[in-house]
Amino acid sequence: MITLNGKECESTATLNALLEKYGYRREVIAVEINGVIIKKEDYDTQAVNDGDVIEVVHFMGGGAPEDKLVLGGHEFTSRFILGSGKYSLELIKAAVENAGAQIITLALRRARGGETANILDYIPKNVTLLPNTSGARNADEAVRIARLARETGCGDFVKIEAIRDTKYLLPDNYETLKATEVLAKEGFVVMPYMYPDLNFARDLQNAGAACVMPLGSPIGSNKGLCTKEFIKILIDEIDLPVIVDAGIGKPSQACEAMEMGAAAVMANTAIATAGDVSAMAGAFRKAIEAGREAYLAGMGGIVEGGARASSPLTGFLRD
Amino acid sequence: MSERCDCMQYMDGMEVIGSDMLDEVISAMNAYDYESYSERDVKEALSKDVLTPKDFGALLSPAAAPFLEEIAQRAMNETRKHFGNSIAMFTPLYIANYCENYCVYCGFNCHNKIRRARLTEEEIEREMAEISKTGLEEILILTGESRKMSDVDYIASACAVAKKYFNVVGVEVYPMNSGEYAKLHKSGADFVTVFQETYNSGKYETLHLEGHKRVFPYRFYAQERAILGGMRGVGFAALLGLADFRKDAFATGMHAYLLQKKYPHAEIAFSCPRLRPIINNDKINPKDVHEPQLLQVICAYRIFMPFASITISTRESERFRDNVIKIAATKISAGVDVGIGGHSGDKKGDEQFEISDGRNVDEVFEAIERQGLQPVMSDYIYV
Q: What is the CB neighbour count within 10 angstroms for residue B374?
């Protein structure tokens, strides 16, 4: 038996025989056996062995290429990053599942010892952990927290938060950049939380950030995309994924960010404080997916009125 | 005839900078299929605040032709938004027409029998003094492309003289290394324009038969070297009509777009030349780039890069120029002589091409004012 495009089926002696048996047109396909791509001229001689895993692919009309979020070489199909603060531990699992989230942020805190319940026990194993540096007031502290977090064995991802304002919790771009420079050199997948400033975003890009995470409005404010015009500029100008973080209070706001071309949305408070946490996680998921699909579909042509010269501008032309 | 060199190989002494912009521009141009755009794509492009390269492609496509009026309206709005009513004035000054290149369409080409000349420093000063009396404060210094007859020191000294008479000095000379651009910059030049002519390297090869200009990538990277040499701004152009003008315009836009992305502080300018008759060949013409196509290209540049300066050449008629400054162009030359030495005395050397709009500075100034626009002699304060 072999596995052909995910299904168990009977084997044949050669690849050519297999393709004929299952009716593939060899001129329009590509074949991979156990992860190795087979050249067309080798189809006749390529042996098929019991247990082989074979993938046969072809193009399809107008096809939808897989739409993935790529961060530091890692691929994700979900564009919803879930924050893990402000939950009771029991609710986290349901929220993650209903959100379909593949990335969840975590804060590092001093362990007390003797604790039985740890947040990691409630997060499904296939979810990527994104430790943040919350609590850091400057670059040095953020770097230290990031290094400690990596030691817990949760991977190379880090979300940089460098905040020295306890009232609004606005990120300090200067300290964030310094931490990004250090951590990117150390091989972290650096995801900096930032105030949406174009020059600063360019600096982060040059420093090796994996994305930029501009705030939509003050954290926890649920005010939505107060910084919309500036986030748009980042989306237009920066080659990294732009992930809207902070201030997203409603699914409609998350959808709006995605329609604009944001690569992902991060939300926490809006879900953690909802009447039904897991249902709200699901609502956000749908909104983010809808916004993404709308963006990929190409927004409809709404030509704005605007000022118009009273007489035609092009009447003077000669062929 | 000596064997022609490979136009993609650098010659000795040509600086190679680590950049992959050429590959990016050429692959984008090759992938640009202007026939694939529909009316919908054009409308979508016009509905956006900030255009993507794909939208730019839509505006250059044949599908956009029926929307030329809408495109012109949008272009005018962008122009006024970014430049107000101001139109910059300048004049080019040709200081030498010796050339070592054989570019089949150009009057200066080394095999064309024309009167060759090079102004001395005194003559340059006399020409500039004369030009500055017209009130102009910006000058563009041009030479034919001969490193032998117009070496870098010669051009640098012309820049230094220019700085005495003008506030803004640009150069349109042969491509140089970044250190040489730095030298010109130190001598007072702040803007560099280099026409790539065509981005189709196969076609380029057949048009530029001899000389250093044959080296396609060295020319391509001139703007980047100029920025590395400290210049404030750089200008781009394809000579429309040499090859497929839509592809060339698309590549020109992409070139400028990627350069601005890489060097966000760089000021960007476009020129939009069409082919013109030259001495000893009056058959040269703009081919399929008629006025509507030219306007479409200019407007596409404007809407794609609303902040860019766009210069309208004296190759175009008075009527076209007066109208296009209302819509998209922001810079216009006046009192133009494309020969050598004609401003202050007898002409010593012949012209590069035939100009169409021969109006002097006062006439162009008044024409700008008649359009309700404001002629501006210089936008910069050097401190």
A: 12
- Residue where the block lists tokens 């605007």: A306
Q: Among A40, A68, A159, A228, which one carries the catalytic annotation?
A: A159
CB contact under 8 A, B72 and A301: no
Please report which helix (H) or strand (E) contains residue B92, including its range.
Answer: strand B86-96
d(CA B376, CA B379): 7
What is the least distance, in Å, from the CA of B140 to any CA of chain A?
29
pTM, rounded to two decimals: 0.76
Mean pLDDT of A109-113: 59
Asked if residues B61 and B37 have their Cβ atoms less than 8 Å apart, the reply is yes
Contact B47 A301 (CB under 8 A): yes
Residue whose structure tokens are 């118009």? A308
What are the tens digits of pLDDT across the range B352-379? 888 888 899 999 999 999 988 999 999 8
Expressed in percent and rounded to 5, the helix, strand and coil fractions of chain A are: 35, 20, 45
Q: Does ipTM exceed 0.85?
A: no
Distance CA B326, CA A119 (A): 64
- Summarize pLDDT for A262-277 with one digit per residue, the tens: 999 998 888 888 888 8
Closest by Cα among B131, B126, B158 to B143: B158
Residues with pLDDT less than 70, chain B: 1-3, 280
Identify which of B47, B41, B81, B76 has the alpha carbon closest to the alpha carbon of residue B59.
B41
Q: Could you tell me if A81 and A266 are in contact, meaning their C-beta atoms sit under 8 angstroms apart?
A: yes
Query: Does A159 qualify as catalytic in the annotation?
Result: yes
